[in-house]
């Protein structure tokens, strides 16, 4: 009986809020009266009504909770938005590996759609002469994984991300170092951790929900985070597409050698001559892009040298 009562007490406390503790515990007689047969059926609504009768109940914030609240306030200053429901921001910053609360996945799903709409709307009116294809390419560059991951690093989102994944921490540090070489975008040459992009999208989703679905409020925050935007003048092609167009223009036939599975390598040949090589064991697409970029640079260098002779 005592064990059963103890389990019921734990269940009720969890339902009432696991992130708080109580300064004064209800007496054993109070708990017994709460779970007495006369109170059946045992419903959550009934439990809360009984809890409201317990006037000496006080919520006490632990030092860990104070630290978490301080972090949320810091994030609010960073993004320039004060949440009415702080738990939304906390959820937006919670990776699936963090077991103690709901993750950002649903908010990320929402934020992804909202961000695509906001950028589409902005570019539609800003660039009235751009074709749908050009608008699509421009939007993709401004909301793809690398762009949003850069936003996360710029505003230190990763420092407030709640996770329990040591591999992720290392990936983030590698990415931070890699972007030093490319001021705005690498266009597929570096591996951006998807988690960094996800946490930006989940934050956008959280703002949208917290602001009662206000598109204007959400855009005010998003447009600042996304600056500087990639413009049509800044937009570059994916290395593979750039290589294909260059070779088509120069009437060059290229051949790719896929050695990625065993060695993490892609090679580009023209007339059986190695002209480009890309290495990246973690992701095949990155290795291919690096090989294509290397090939483009070598082709252009050869053309330049020929003109100088």
TrEMBL record:
Ordered alphabetically, the record's keywords are: Endonuclease, Hydrolase, Magnesium, Metal-binding, Nuclease, RNA-binding
The yes or no answer to whether the keyword RNA-binding is present is yes
Question: Which GO cellular component does the record give, naming just one?
Answer: cytoplasm
Q: What is this protein called?
A: RNase III domain-containing protein
Q: One biological process GO term for this chain?
A: siRNA processing
Does the keyword section mention Hydrolase?
A: yes
Gene3D superfamilies, sorted: 3.30.160.20, Ribonuclease III domain (1.10.1520.10)
Recorded hits in InterPro entries, A to Z, give:
dsRBD_dom, RNase_III_dom, RNase_III_sf
Residue ranges annotated for the RNase III domain, each copy included: 72-212
Name its species: Ambrosia artemisiifolia
Q: Name one GO molecular function term.
A: ribonuclease III activity
SUPFAM superfamilies reported for this sequence? dsRNA-binding domain-like (SSF54768), RNase III domain-like (SSF69065)
Question: Which cofactor does the UniProt annotation name?
Answer: Mg(2+); Mn(2+)
**Pfam entry (one):** dsrm
Q: Which PANTHER family match?
A: DICER-RELATED, RIBONUCLEASE 3-LIKE PROTEIN 3 ISOFORM X1
